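Two proteins were folded this term; both appear here.
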Amino acid sequence: MTKSATNLPAGPLKTIVFDMGNVLVFFSHDRMCRQIGKLCGCSGDEMRVQLLESGLQWEFERGLIDEKILHMRLEEIFNCRIDLAALCRATADIFTLNDTIVPVLDELKHRGLRLVLLSNTCRTHVQFIREHWDFLDRFDQLVVSYEVGAIKPEDAMYRAALNAIECRPEEALYTDDIAPYVAKGRSFGLNAAVFTTTEKFLADLRDYGIEIDAPGCRDSEYPGRSVSS
């Protein structure tokens, strides 16, 4: 058994719960800060302080503010005028698809498993992703922070996930690239495994009796996949 997986469930898995960032898509906060900083006339480092370290981005991802309020806040902070559409592009054009995971999603759906997304994200990011790729169409339900009004690892996100899986927690497997989030999932009774690569996730699935060898699902077939910066 891989080190990150919990004890084997009593029965077969019925649902797989996926994180999105650095699992289904790779992303770069550095790139986001540089792009928004360019619009506001500041450095990426300064934007990181004002956007991430201040907690403004997390307000956005909690759904406490929308893109229009974010736009207004940034104009106030930097005493500048920003085109709203340009801001949305700068905020969201930070993703690269993890090509190797898509065949896995397809095979899991083919086998009748329920797929649930559990992601800290914002509406702007989800809209951008839907415009560029169709992998979210494979999911039966999206549990996203801006709709729940909370972010992982807060309890509300995991309670929402339990409502979405439509099975017992021990019949679901949750994968996320952030170990504390995985640990929190386990505390809610979910089987859980830290995501590092698609190949490692395939090994985790084998621990639960799911063998997948779909074309294109091996990381070695897509060399150089990493978070862009």
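Next, the second protein.
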Amino acid sequence: MPRRSKITAIILTLNEEKNIADCLKSVKWVDEIVVVDSGSTDKTIEIAKEYTDKIYYHKFESDFSKQRNFAITKAKGEWILFLDADETLPKGSEEKIKELIANTPSRSPCLPAGRHSGHLEGETIEGFWFPRRNYINKARYLKHGLFYPDWQLRLLRYTKGLQFIGSIHEQPDISHDKTQKVKDVEIFHNSSRTKYDSFFSFYRLFPFIKADGQKLASSSTSTTQIFLSSFSTFFLELWWNLVRRQGHKDGWPGIRGTLIWALYKELSVIYALVSRIIKR
């Protein structure tokens, strides 16, 4: 019988009193829950204490990777499950995740790496991607286009050098060749107050526009290419996500979300272009 590995769940919080109980309740079966808060002034901490005593404060410095990396230093599990405070795991996830880990070969430096489309002999997997359902209300989630399956790399094997990179679009610094997509473990996301649910919430995308724009401006992409992209990005994003990926099938919520996404991508390119021009 495979040895059972310990699992730590990590959740970052800031004024999440409306969501945190459901989130923590959905992962109460793990061996350890670590909550890293960046200064909540509501009842988030009070609620979290009902589920764990491992609650830490870490000042947010406009860098989500720093928050996650701090949390990793507090985790003792051999596997780490990352959830956002407005996400939950549905019933049945415990058994599926434990079985997934039990059937994953132990890490060994002698084993060759490979592309993981399944549990192949001699391979070692460092992380698992789960599809995420983005709910617009308690009963309905977006099933097409940009918003599903919305793969998230959330279950990671702990290693000494495990860390996240990227201040906003943070991702673990591991090779995707050592990860695997798992369709039958889903994340449920309460997206009723996200940056894609209303044109009035578009302001939440400003930090992302700046971060993506700065990244593109500092890349090796030529100014001419960025200039040309500024005329096409918006329309290409709409065509790809509404037509090719059939986002229109989700009705107005799907169309609205895709419009906001396309505008965000377009403004990121314009930000990069302006940055290049100013530096000249």
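Confidence is low (pLDDT under 50) at residues 108-122. The radius of gyration is 20 Å. These notes refer to the second protein only.
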